Amino acid sequence: MRLLREKEPIILLFVFMVHGFEYSKTKCNNCDEQLFCNCSFKHLQHVPDVPLNARGLDLSFNQIESIRMTDLRLYTELKTLNLHKNKLTFIHKEAFKSQAKLEVLDLSLNKLENLSSCWFQELKSLQQLNLLGNPYTTLGPSPLFRFLVNLRTLQIGSHSLKEVYKNGLDELAHLDEMTVVGSSLKSYENGSFQAARPIGLVSLSLQSLFEKDPELVSKILQDVSHSETVLIIRDSIIRSNTSTEPFKASKEGGIRSLTFLNTTTTDEAITTLLLNLDGSPLSYIGLEDVHLVGQGWWQKAEFTHYENLHTVYIRNLDIQGFIKFSSMIQLAFLLKNFHKVSVINSMLFVIPRQTTFFLLHIEYLDFSQNLLTDLTIQETLFTGFGQLQNLNTLNVSQNSLKSFEVLSSLAANLKKLIHLDVSHNRFVSMPEKCHWPVTLRFLNLSNTKLLRLTPCLPSSLTVLDLSENDLKSFHQRLPKLTTLILTGNRFLNLPQGGLFPNLGTLLIQRNALRMFTRKDLSRFKNLRFLEAGTNNFLCSCEFVSFFRNHVDDLVTLRDGRRNYACDTPFSLRGDAIDSVRLSVFECYMIPAVSTLCAAIILVLIGMVVTCHKLHIIWYLQMTKAWIQAKRKPAVSRSPDELRYDAFVSYSQHDAEWVEEILVPNLENAQPPVALCLHQRDFRPGRWIVDNIIDSIEKSHRTLFVLSEHFVTSEWCRYELDFSHFRIVDEHNDSAVLILLEPIEKETIPKRFCKLRKIMNSRTYLEWPEDEDNRSEFWSNLKAALSREQC
Ligand SMILES: *[C@@H]1O[C@H](CO)[C@@H](O)[C@H](O)[C@H]1NC(C)=O
Ligand SMILES: *[C@@H]1O[C@H](CO)[C@@H](O)[C@H](O)[C@H]1NC(C)=O
Ligand SMILES: *[C@@H]1O[C@H](CO)[C@@H](O)[C@H](O)[C@H]1NC(C)=O
Ligand SMILES: *[C@@H]1O[C@H](CO)[C@@H](O)[C@H](O)[C@H]1NC(C)=O
Ligand SMILES: *[C@@H]1O[C@H](CO)[C@@H](O)[C@H](O)[C@H]1NC(C)=O
Ligand SMILES: *[C@@H]1O[C@H](CO)[C@@H](O)[C@H](O)[C@H]1NC(C)=O
Ligand SMILES: *[C@@H]1O[C@H](CO)[C@@H](O)[C@H](O)[C@H]1NC(C)=O
């Protein structure tokens, strides 16, 4: 014990040296919430440092050359480890020792020359293992995989693989899926690919091995062909009639499902294939991405037996002799057993009625992605000989159909039709009335350029897909409908719920919906799921509040609330409705604006009233005039410039007195007094104020004829207009006042302070009521106006 403790620092130093000097580790913290760390495409040369509790680690597309003993030691929680496309040449025997929880291991496309069973010793949980694309040449003979007791998916082999020996697969009881690449195989030990029980799916990529070594292929097929196994032969060349010999082994194994993928073949090979498999229980044959050099002349196999061959799945078939490909009547021996036929994306443009005649049991036809037209579909779906009477599914999606009328009249004769997929055609319109089989439940009219719906739609439908059209409204009643898909149209509102009493699911994303209300939704009596994201929502307060608080009470938004974003107002465009915060002002815009306007009007009225009451305008004008007066230079008048003795200022009210009494009395006196009256002496065409100013400047005195009326209504003008004259200054004596009637000083408005001052500081002449005193008045007046006073 003591000894060990003493040595500890040395061990630590050693560890430090290994870690610190030999190579410096990079860090990778690109991990998500599930602790999956994606470190792919990082030019890494070593396994990087990641969080210790990492669950997944993607190291694909790096430059890692080796995995050392300690590289992964700390990551005991790893479930997924992806090392696809690195430069691995070396993996330490104990590299995966602490990965007891690892479920997925991908070592594909590396440079591993030797595989070691030691790697897998602790990988008791491993379910998927990918060893494709490494230059190892041998599998076995040591039992490579026997520790992988839970393995479900195994991918092995490469173009370098030459020898396969028994290697422990026969101990694996859970293997479901196996992919083998082995174009260069030279030897294969019987039983090597046989697991403890038949594997569910086996995919073999053997390229030209069928041609080169059919015997070896036979041995492989013998091991993997079982009635439970789906066998996929891919990337192969099967041209000669000998290359199909191995399938005899498959027949013996009782294979039922056989698919050719990315394979080149010939009429000859297919004929011998059919002969070799004669009498087998084959029930499914698939041809995907198959290149057929031939014209479908397989009648040498005419007398074979394929009673169980019910399903044919053909996709992307490329026929070299396409033009000569005949009516297939010669294949009647096969056709009469078919229940399900798919011919997808294979340039099919017609099936002659003589051929469909043999499709006695057909229930399912998928002719999608072909070249059917309105004309050829009439031939293809011809029912005149009683054909197609068991058909329940018809898929003519992605063809060149244009007439919905033709299609519906053909479908009407398919008495058991349940599914009809006519999506991706170009109907544009539909007739007003149509006949349909009463059995029809599913109709797919997606992407057919429809502009308008009519009562042509079958009322028996339970699922209707109208996505990706140009529809704006929906008025047909479909009482049985449970699913309606309106995605990618131009609806402004939800369709009326009352038309669909049984609708449970409504998809209406990518339309032009502005909003939906509680009322809209509650009209759908049975609606449970709604997908209405990516619309042009108007984020009003009602809608936002309804969406946030109540929409979940009515339906489940299956497409996720994040997809519900505002379109208007502009300031909120693109914001998720859930994240929008509207202010009180925004929410109550109209009342708020009204209140504001009313308040402004009230304030204005108040100001006007106050101005009026306090004569504020008047004071303002006064101030202005006063300022002007202060600026104006004093005028010095010489007696010669004075044309008049007096300028008479009076109210219109008192005009009679002035004209009848004052003027005659003064102008006819001896000596006459020259008076200036604005009505008489003003020069026409001049501004009245200028006239007055002018007159006052040319007059020796200014005679104010004061009456109650003058004071209250006219004075104001004087104080304003003439305040800049000396006349209203108390130090100037040019003003002469005549009081026509007694005026109480208190009645003079307070703001006419100058008038008050003048009246206080100066004596004024009172017009006597009594005639006897008038001569005295006149003489006083004349004296006051006389120029030679002093
Ligand atoms: C990791 O990131 C790359 C791109 O850097 C991406 O292609 C890859 O799909 C990601 N892997 C996983 C498992 O998400
Ligand atoms: C693989 O094994 C062979 C023979 O056992 C050996 O010669 C070769 O060096 C090994 N290669 C590597 C990279 O370990
Ligand atoms: C392997 O099987 C083939 C036939 O399938 C047989 O001819 C051959 O003798 C077998 N070889 C061994 C070693 O069992
Ligand atoms: C199809 O198979 C050929 C060999 O027959 C192969 O070279 C090619 O890569 C395969 N194509 C695909 C897409 O797998
Ligand atoms: C196999 O091919 C040869 C010529 O390539 C032909 O003569 C022979 O009849 C073919 N066998 C079968 C069974 O089709
Ligand atoms: C019809 O074919 C299209 C295209 O191949 C496919 O997407 C669709 O699922 C098919 N419809 C049915 C009902 O199988
Ligand atoms: C209708 O057809 C479209 C296009 O082929 C397809 O994407 C969609 O899934 C189909 N709808 C249904 C309900 O199967």
Automatic annotation (TrEMBL):
Xref: InterPro entries: Leu-rich_rpt, Leu-rich_rpt_typical-subtyp, LRR_dom_sf, TIR_dom, Toll-like_receptor, Toll_tir_struct_dom_sf
UniProt keyword list: Disulfide bond, Glycoprotein, Immunity, Inflammatory response, Innate immunity, Leucine-rich repeat, Membrane, Receptor, Repeat, Signal, Transmembrane, Transmembrane helix
Stated name of the protein: Toll-like receptor 2
UniProt-annotated location(s): Membrane
Residues in coiled coil: none
Secretion signal, residue range per the UniProt entry: 1-20
Phylogenetic lineage: Eukaryota, Metazoa, Chordata, Craniata, Vertebrata
Molecular function terms from GO: transmembrane signaling receptor activity; triacyl lipopeptide binding
One GO CC annotation: plasma membrane
Gene3D superfamilies named in the record: Ribonuclease Inhibitor, Toll/interleukin-1 receptor homology (TIR) domain
A Pfam match: TIR
